[in-house]
Amino acid sequence: MLDTGPGFYLAALICTLIGLSWCRKHWDNRSHPPLPPGPPSFPIVGSILSLDNPTQPWLGFNAWKSTYGDIIYARLLNKPVVVINSEEVAKDLLELRSAIYSDRPQSIVYEFFGPDIMALMAYGDRWRLHRRIVDQSFRPAATPTYHTTLRRSAHKMLFGFLQNPTDYTSHFQMFPHSYILSIVYDYEPRANGDHIVHIMQRYMELFVAGVGLSATMIMETFPFLLRLPAWFPGATFKRAAVECLKMDHDMQETPFQDVKERMSTGRVAPCLVADNLNRMNGVENDDFETAVKQAASMVFAGTQADELSPVVAHSSLSSAATESTYSTLLIFLLAMVVHPEVQAKAQADIDRVVGKDRLPDFDDRPALPYLDAVLRETLRWYPAAPLGAPHATTTSDIYKGYFIPKGITVIANTWAMSHDENKYPNPDAFKPERFLREDGSLTRDTMSLIFGWGRRACVGRHVANASLWIAMTSFLATFSVHKALDEHGKEIPVAPKFSIGLAIHPETFPCRIVPRFEDASVENLTRLTGLVVEQL
Ligand code: HEM
């Protein structure tokens, strides 16, 4: 007799799903070369079941590599995606064929949470104009003009550590706020309670909640929910969207109008907004002015591009400019706690090259290769945006005999590339030496892959790199971080754990941050930095 218990029905269901999935793939492959290989896909869930931990898909994508290779086709819930697991394929497609691979996947949710975010924009004229506006200020040649601003922001951060060493997350968060607002608006935020920082942070909170895992999944499946009136019972998402758009408006207008007002009285220093408005030479051009306003506010928001699938959206919703800098600094601090020998070596180099009577400056950078190696290893060890930001194709393509459909989401798995055992042996270990030659000079590997690919590569990468260098070096010159002690004076072990938000960052961990400059006082820090604490 045939056993028709629950096990039978479950087995029948699984067989049917596998059959349907096979038919779909077969149908997809009928009229064109085959799609890249990939894990089995089932209705509704797609290939999610093949991911060990869907909240960290970069690890699962990396694990797929051994079975399916460097280019993989999968379905994440209802979204087809192509995953790239190697630098070679990323360069071939996202750089050498960038005319095809520079779009972004679009989502209905953006309209309600981030309609003007450059990083989310479809590839086209509007994106080009925004990109040009931002590029003018963040191109490599402009970076040295920001050295003073970056140094000042890093030094302000040191006062935070001296006065309140336990609140390290706030100091690392304030650092990018401070330098980005200076570069974009010639605006120096107050260390505590700044109203512009508040607007921007509130916007980001709402944005992350709005395009996070569950919200996106529900809204994409039932888009009519977005059309409900805000007063409708239970429509919390819609109310959040209304507040998000209000914050978006304030975030664009408040600092922008402030710059315009100061321009009219000649009280504004060169900055992204003033420089672009000056380019108009007094000729009215509302479209351009609006683009400057939007592009400026979205520099702060940075790279919030990801709506490829709810699962990946939640986890790789990539780094906002400030978030990714903040995350990278937290990862650096974690690395220093866990690897005191690296910290000691970096500090010995700073002491030898810079001495104790002044703080490191950009001119010292060539003489401090180990510090650059620490920076590169921090970017590699735990990339703040492990899946970068997703690209999309504008036309179909054929690569190595595989068919890449038009409009498909393309994910460059940065994690797989930065943990490629052939290039970085023992990839989970934190070893700055891998970026140094035998003679102590730096290798040519700058870890640029962390900042993405082709025409959509991070527009702020040169400034980000310089900002991270001065922040880390200034910190190590003046402070050390150690494991915290328990009530018996024993070190509390640190087990790295990571949270997933706009960018990946370590969860707060107990540590002791102690000054290492002589007679650690505000007066002495004032002498070293030239900053007066009352003015901060
Ligand atoms: C550690 C710091 C940073 C990291 C790791 C980072 C990483 C990234 C990545 C992976 C992308 C996506 C690239 C791609 O699609 O291939 C991106 C895009 C972007 N980044 Fe950054 N970023 C950082 C800092 C900054 C800063 C300081 C700015 C300020 C200007 C910035 C502005 C942007 C913008 C506007 C985009 C979107 C570009 C576009 O879509 O055309 N980022 N970033």
CATH architecture assignment name = Orthogonal Bundle
CATH superfamily: Cytochrome P450
CATH topology: Cytochrome p450
Number of helices: 19
Rg estimate, integer Å: 25 Å
Shape: globular
Q: What does the oligomeric state look like here? A: single chain
Spatial separation of the terminal alpha carbons:
83 Å
Give start-end ranges of low-pLDDT stretches: 303-319
Strand order of the largest sheet: 1-2-6-3
The level of helicity is 40-55%
What's the CATH C level? Answer: Mainly Alpha
Structural class: alpha+beta
Order of helices and strands: HHEEHHHHHHHHHHHHHHEEEEHHEEEEH
Report mean pLDDT, rounded to a whole number. Answer: 88
Summarize the main sheet: 4 strands, mixed
Q: How many discrete structural domains?
A: 1
What hetero molecules are in the model?
Answer: protoporphyrin IX containing FE
Percentage of residues in strands: 5-15%
Give a count of the beta strands, DSSP E runs of length 2 or more: 10
Descriptive report:
The protein is of the alpha+beta class and 536 residues long. The chain has helices at 6-29, 57-68, 87-95, 108-113, 125-138, 147-163, 168-185, 195-210, 213-221, 236-264, 272-279, 286-301, 310-316, 321-338, 340-354, 369-381, 414-418, 461-478, 522-529; strands at 71-76, 79-84, 391-392, 397-399, 402-404, 409-412, 479-483, 498-500, 504-506, 511-515. A hairpin with a 3-residue loop joins strand 8 and strand 9 (504-506). The chain is globular, with a radius of gyration of 25 Å. Bound molecules: protoporphyrin IX containing FE. The site of protoporphyrin IX containing FE (HEM) has 31 residues, from helix 5, helix 14 and helix 18. Pfam families: p450. Keywords: Heme, Iron, Membrane, Metal-binding, Monooxygenase, Oxidoreductase, Transmembrane, Transmembrane helix.
